Amino acid sequence: MIPDHKFLMKWAEIVAFERRLRVLQTASLIPGIVNASQSDAPLAVCLSQVMQPGDLLFVDHRSIAYAIALGMSLKDLWAELYGRNSSVGGGWSGSLHLVDHSHGLGGANGIVGAPLGWALGSALADRVFHNDQVSIAVVGDRVTETGIFYESLQISQRWSLPVLVVIRNNTHRSLDTIGKIGQLLGIPCHQESTTCLDQLSNTLQTCTERVRQGSAQLVEVHVSATDEGSPVTKIPWHESAMATLYDKARQRVEVSWGKAQLVPYRRVDDLPLRHAPRVSCDVAPKGSFQAVELSMSKAIEHALLECLDEDERVVVIGEDVGAPAEIRDDPIFGPYFQIAASLSEKFGSRLWSAPVSEMSWVLSAAGAASRGLRPVVDLMNVGFAACAFDAIANQAGSAWWFSRGKVHVPLVIRAIVGGGVQAGSQHSHMWHPIFCHLPGWNVVMPTSPEDAYGLLKAALYDNHPTMFLEHVGLYHLTGLVQVGHTGVMGRARIYQQGTELTVVAAGNMVPRTIDVVSGFPAGLVEIIDPVTLSPLDRRTILKSLQKTRRILVIDEAPSTGGWARSVVGELIPMAHIAWKEPPRVIAAPDCPVPFSPALEQEYIPTRERIGQTIGEMLGL
């Protein structure tokens, strides 16, 4: 193969850029972590030549070669590496998190194996929308040491996803296992090298065409690195024609570097901190606003059925989404599984049953959301979020920032929380404080059928990810639901007005507190359920504090570092009032939820403890 002018020019730009970068790094003039990728230049340019508009490439931390090959502005790339206010990431992404869908870069990633999940989700969206676009994941050979590699290949086959996985073999070590795994799963595996550009280019072209036709492909590419940024092909930089090309590339790099120095840093007061700005969805749910008596579980089911019926972009992803009868009839978790079962009866083709590999399919759901789907992840129990924590903490919530607001992840994760049913610690977690700590996430924990129905619809039509937490003790709670309405994220509910004490409660503590306060004189205690724990409706709580100047926060999560203490810590400096007495917190002990019924009953804040504390604060 004799590379054409465009191919060689891109290669020369990559080499010139990274040579300049190396000089700046040596002089400590470039901040932070930047990973060179010169040896990837031939692979990057070959991939850029076989990609078509709409195709997306997801790559690991060695992203610079791919960004340049795909046509990203050199000035913007320099500005982003300096942390300046570039049009790419605005100083948020750096080289580890570059995202530029307009040029086909789905995203770079600092987590080994994560590009696989994003590419799978992108391919899922392409399949649902009947596109012939290609999603490509480029990862290093060490990905074969991770679980997500095997999980992702399994999912690609289970869901028949058209994805191209390119494994960069940096060390020339034998990776025969890749071919064996591919053979076992029915995924063709090809081995190529950057020392033979014509064969590499032809293989990538063939594979992308097969992916476009709906067949997953694996390609292992042996990469050779030299100081010149060229492999054994020995492109002759010293010859006059090539030297001229390189000189042009070097001049472009220098000019773009100079222009990047003029790009200002982003103003700190311009930062959208904690939560991305609310963005309305382009489709609003319809409804007739009819009052219906529903249980919490039926309200959730009703909301899901409505959204699935009204919007083809809504899909459900999870384990056992078509739950068998023996699971649906479980006395404790049955209501949760019955919801999935009812969905499968009417929308079976929109339910994607996943293997027991939360990390890969939760991340795939985020990738699908970034490409236009609105997935509902059926996580079952919140304890399983630990298995998918990278997808939740490192990936889905950050995409909006890394892309400078261009990529949204309208993802909803449903999960059971709470104790009281002797399910043991791993199935009784209250992890809402952890999720509230993660920027970019909405955290909703409804305590009434009305809020469960309205806020699930609001979450499904919000353009940012939402953790929708359903307390196991509230599924059978009944109440009137205005069918057809959509709730408002970030708005608290006042269950009872009062003048002497503000009680803020969350989850199952809300009905428990209402029950306890009914034994006190009317008009003393104001009960507030934030419902949306993040973003928190501080205004409503602060307005109540102006009256009462006392606050008690009640939560089922452990005390240290918990949600209750976080609320108190936020509100004290904001209230600007003369407190009648110090704020108080009632929370669980700092230990796992016990299985023993007697111990669990004392572990969860009791009615007696709540009543005693309220009485003390009121002086009764």
**Residues in β-strands, percent:** 15-25%
What is the top-level CATH class of the largest domain? Alpha Beta
Sheet having the most strands: 7 strands, mixed
CATH topology category name of the largest domain: Rossmann fold
Report helical residue fraction. Answer: 25-40%
Instruction: Count all strands and give the number.
Output: 20
> What would you report as the Rg, rounded to the nearest angstrom?
27 Å
- Counted by DSSP, the helix tally is 22
For the record, give the distance between the C-alpha atoms at the N and C termini, rounded to a whole number. 89 Å
Structure, explained:
There is one protein chain. The chain is an alpha/beta fold and 620 residues long. It folds into 3 domains: 259 residues, Rossmann fold; 194 residues, 3-Layer(aba) Sandwich (Rossmann fold), CATH 3.40.50.970; 125 residues, Rossmann fold. It is built from 22 helices and 20 strands. Strands 9-8-10-11-13-12-18 form a 7-stranded mixed beta sheet, with helices on both faces. Helix 20 links the parallel strand 19 and strand 20. Helix 2 packs across helix 8 and helix 10 runs parallel beside helix 12. About 2% of the residues have low confidence.
Key traits:
620 residues, alpha/beta, Rossmann fold, 3 domains, seven-stranded mixed sheet, six-stranded parallel sheet
Concise structural overview:
It is built from 22 helices and 20 strands. By secondary structure, it is α/β, with parallel strands linked by helices.
